[in-house]
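**Protein fold record**
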Amino acid sequence: MKRHDFANRRPPSGLEPPRRLYGPHAVEAWLRHHPEQVQAVHYEAHPSTRVRALVRLAEVNGVVTRCGDAETLTRLAATRRHQGVVAELGAFPYCELAEVLTSSPRLLIAADQLQDPHNLGALLRTAAAVGIGAVVIPKDGAVGVTPAVEVAAAGAAAVVPVCRVTNLARTLRALRDEGYWIVGMSPRDGVDLYALDPPARIVVVLGGEDGMRPLVAKSCDLRVSIPMVGRAESLNASVAVAVMVYEVQRRWGSWAQLGRDA
C-alpha cells in the first residue's frame, strides 16, 4: 500500500513555546505514559494524597519537583484551578499521520475547525475511551492541543495520537487512497446511522462550531446523520462522535477490530 506525504511535519525546534499543564489527571497521564516529556512538576505545600503520589511518580522518573505556594502555582498555570499541581513540558508532540498508519487503525477521526478547547478536549476523551487510531486536526483555523484542551481531555491527550495537517481536504483524499472511507457527520440529510453498513476502514469527519468547510465536505464519500426525535437540532461534537463510533463498533461486532485489522 502506497504512503502519502500528509503535510504534517513537526515545526522546527523553538517555534512553539514550552507549555504548562495543570490538574492531577493531565499531569499524571504524562508522567505515566511519557515522563520524558515532563521537565518539572511544581506542587503546593501540604499537598493532597493524590498530588503527593504524583510527586513520588515524578521523582521515580527523574523529573525535577519544586514545592511552592498557591500563588506561585496560580501564576504558573494562569488559573486558580490547578488543584495543587502544575507541570512544565515541551511543545505538544503532534504525531505524523504516516506513522500512525503503520499500525493499520480501522477508525480515525478528523475534526474540521473545532475552535472551542473544551470541545476538542471532550473529543480526545471520547477517542481514548473508544480506542481511536488518531485524531486529525488542521493547523489553521482550529484550536491546537492547549493546556485548556488537556484539562478537558482529563489525560487523554497523552495517549491519543493527534495529527495536525496543513490541508485537511487533501489529507482526506490521501486517506481514501489508503483504503479508508471518508464519512462526514451531518445534522440532517445524511444516511441514517442505524441503517449504515460500515466499511472496513473509516475516517469519521465532523465540522467545527460553524460546520464543515465546503472542500472538506466535498472530500467525504458519504454523509451520516444521527436520528433526532426530540427538539434539539444537533448534538455536541464529542457526543455525536461517541454515538457514531460506538455504533460502528457494534456493527463490526468486536472491540478487537476497532484498533486495527483483524
User: Anything to note?
Assistant: The chain has two domains: 19-89, 97-259. The mean pLDDT is 88. The domain at 97-259 is CATH 3.40.1280.10 (Alpha/beta knot). The first strand starts at residue 19 and ends at 22.
